[in-house]
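User: Show me a protein chain along with its predicted structure.
Assistant: Here is one chain, sequence first, then structure tokens.
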Amino acid sequence: MKKILIVVLGLTVLLAAGVAIFIATFNADRYRPLLVEKLEEALGQPVTLERLSVGWRNGIALELEGLAVYPDTGKRAKPTLAFERGSMVVKLGPLLRRDIQIASIFITKPQINLTRRADGTIQLPGSTDKTGGDGASPPFKSGPPALLSIQSIEIRDGEVFFHDKSANPPIDLAVRDLDVAI
């Protein structure tokens, strides 16, 4: 019994060391162009991302730096959504069962720029008309669904800017130093 316990303990230590070495040496930034491409495809808008990294904080931590989503007009315009740094901690055990459990999401200095057009419509970041023109929704890829749960979201030093072109004269509103914890 004692030998079995020693073997199990040894295997656990080796597994933990292997995971630690993998996370310490894994270069997630090489997948940044692929992530940007997939985000642009999903949002239908230009996206930039300065840095992507993976770490460990009681779960796998995915960290993004310098994310910006631009309106359809291109990257020279002011981004509709941007943040300085964001991180998401995913629990490892449930992930192996296709159950995505996010322990926390932390976003630093997000900036959202919203504009109400003269016709009264507001285009939110990442919202585009993805119907085929006939009002039908685009087809979704099939496959077994993954479960998703988020335990906490924290936003620090956020800013929301709203420009209303439907008013005469146009109105500009700004909310600064926005801190939110959910």
